[in-house]
Amino acid sequence: MRYCWLLIGLLSSRAFAEQPNPQRQQELLNMLKHDCGSCHGLPPKGGLGPSLMPEALADKSDVLLADAIQNGRPGSAMPPWKSFLRIDETGWLIQQLRQGLK
Amino acid sequence: MKPCLRLIFLSIALGFGSQVDADPRATGDLGVVIERETGSIQIVNTTKPASLSRIEGLGDLSHASVVFSRDQRYAYVFGRDGGLTKIDLLQDKIEKRIIQAGNSIGGAISQDGKIIAVSNYTPGGVKLFDAVTLEQLAEIPAVYGEDNKLSKVVGLVDAPGQRFVCSLFEGNEIWLIDAKNPRQPIVKKFKDIGKQPYDALLTPDGHFYAAGLFGEKGLALLDLWQPEKGVEHILEDYGKDDEQMPVYKMPHLEGWTVAGDWLLVPAVGLHEVLVIDTREWELVKRIPVAGQPVFVTSRPDGRQVWVNFAFPDNQTLQVIDLKDFNIAKTLQPGKAVLHMEFSPRGEAVWLAVRDEDRVMVYDTETFQETARLPAQKPSGIFFTDRANRIGW
What we know:
Strand content of chain B: over 45%
Radius of gyration of chain B: 22 Å
Strand content of chain A: under 5%
Number of strands of chain A: 0
Oligomer: heterodimer
Largest sheet of chain B: 4 strands, antiparallel
Number of strands of chain B: 34
Structural class of chain A: mainly alpha
Radius of gyration of chain A: 13 Å
Structural class of chain B: mainly beta
Number of helices of chain A: 5
Helix content of chain B: under 10%
Distance between the termini of chain A: 35 Å
Number of helices of chain B: 1
Shape of chain B: globular
């Protein structure tokens, strides 16, 4: 509970306080389209991994999504990305997914 | 005037003749390059080497694979969106395109070249199509378990006897499909073969089907010459006490990772290539490599195996020399080597280097780059000499 609130606070402040710089945004989008996209599809309608389309994420909280991205889903093919993505970058990616990738 | 006219007619005749001579295109040294972001392919000539044309409108190719007709005239492209696209390699055009499922992973063409089989994630199952007309001949839902759930189907290959073999990722099964009567295929199911088979290969003689397991260690092995023996779980203990590393791209099993008596496969969750003796189906060597292997691909003569890697090591390639199982070379062609394809007799290897937007060609003896071609986010390369290989 406390952890959840802390994470929400962290996500909110970081996500709005600093966007990734344009070059990092490009890297993150490339990763999302092509590294995530090999499992989730491009557009991310799903594959071995589930759909990441806006409608599929609508009922899932940012906290849940951030945890799945950062820590992976043990027992499934979803690996943890925390070695490569900061929390604020993860939050930014979640917002891109919610808006829908082209 | 008359001499002029004669000259004109002569020129026209020569011109037309020249055009006609120039038009015919052999297909034995053609290939297809998948451009995953744009949903397009390029037709390439592997001898020149050159790109001959780009064909657009193939839908979602974020994952794609290709098989070829027996005569190497047509490519069949299986797209992520369930699209099945038949391409005429001589006329540079889409001959036919259908959407046969909601989400698809790959396909195969039958021993006699008459049936296209597609393995689907959504809805989970296998569909059979006429290779000429793309008319649907059969649909086999991948039903498993007591509550009749549908599993994603992976590892679909053709096999001798007009058969197909595939695996059920969530269902933990291997299915042997007899398609001698493609409108009424007969399915033999092997259950509880191991957790989460993720891909599979057939040995070049069509004898063994080996499915790699993601949910536990090892492979599930089916002897197609003695299917009544059932499925054997091999290599169940390799590396189980070692630290398991995250897998950022699912490994792939493709034909011709068999070299002589050895089958080389990517370890899962370990930065190793595993060497299996196919006479006893035992692990004989673990070769440390630079990252999580994705493709472990044997040169046609079996002397070398080329290995590419998952994120974040996908800019690296390593070459294993099977004379003594050493790493003969480590290469850094560029960011995101997604796929490798050897020329028909192996003097060259073609690489899809996705983030550099190019295909690169390397000499496999000197390890020098010999050519590069522009491509938009290339992710797969498939050559027509695959057309008549069992299990590809």
